[in-house]
Amino acid sequence: MIAILEKYIPQASVQPVFELIKANKVHLKIVNERVTRHGDYRKLANGQHQITVNANLNPYRFLITLIHEIAHLITFNKCGRNIKPHGKEWKHIFQQLMLPFIRPEIFPDQLLPLLALHFKNPKATSDTDASLSLALKQYDPANDKNYIFEIPQGGLFRLYNGKVFKRGNKRVKRYECQELTTGRMYLFNPNAEVEFLR
């Protein structure tokens, strides 16, 4: 397991993460990219705790995602099912688990203040924290995607599911975009990755 973790997360985090996995009896599966999620946790019918994480994540996002899912497992064990998946219990446990990792030996200096801010009140996904998400994406392998905020107003873009949208005005934090086939309006985070058409 240590040899596998070394391929995916920062070196200084390998041993403490291994201890967390062992202590919580995690069955970790590293899977092909799923565009709708970075990872997930589920308790299997045989009682085993399975966590899946996308293989294509950069080491920092992989680490955050893995700890996020371990927090779900611990919250489930402590509180049962009758709580919100990303409610106050989960937030508290996620904060406690992440705290020892927010160090310069693990994360680059430029990420540390953004992580400290994010973990004052962690969100269901780091993708909704635009500043942190954009900073994390700098460590991703290069790709041909654009962010919504880079698409010119009136420009067309395509999502992974093939739907085509026209970018509209910015509302407070998100962009209003119209799906061309249905005419329906949707709100997009500025850091959503899309394929720019024209």
Written account of the structure:
The protein is globular, with a radius of gyration of 18 Å. The protein has a six-stranded antiparallel β-sheet with strand order 4-9-5-6-7-8, with no helix packed on it. It has a three-stranded mixed β-sheet with strand order 1-3-2, covered by helices on one side. The termini are far apart. It has two domains: 2-137, 2-Layer Sandwich (Zincin-like), CATH 3.30.2010; 146-196, SH3 type barrels (Roll). The longest helix is centred in the middle third of the chain and has 21 residues, at 59-79. By secondary structure, the chain is of the alpha+beta class. It has helices spanning 2-8, 14-23, 59-79, 88-98, 112-118, 130-137, and strands at residues 26-31, 39-43, 49-54, 146-147, 156-158, 164-171, 174-179, 185-188, 193-196. The chain has six helices and nine strands. The protein is 32% helix and 22% strand. Helix 3 (59-79) crosses helix 4. A hairpin with a 5-residue loop joins strand 7 and strand 8.
Features:
three-stranded mixed β-sheet; SH3 type barrels; 2 domains; globular; six-stranded antiparallel β-sheet; single chain; 32% helix; alpha+beta; Zincin-like; 198 residues
The fold-level CATH name of the largest domain is: Zincin-like
CATH architecture of the largest domain: 2-Layer Sandwich
The average pLDDT is 90
Question: How big a fraction of the residues is strand?
Answer: 15-25%
- Note the main sheet: 6 strands, antiparallel
CA radius of gyration: 18 Å
Write the layout of secondary structure elements.
Blueprint: H1 2-8, H2 14-23, E1 26-31, E2 39-43, E3 49-54, H3 59-79, H4 88-98, H5 112-118, H6 130-137, E4 146-147, E5 156-158, E6 164-171, E7 174-179, E8 185-188, E9 193-196
Parallel strand pairs: 1-3
Antiparallel strand pairs: 2-3, 4-9, 5-6, 5-9, 6-7, 7-8
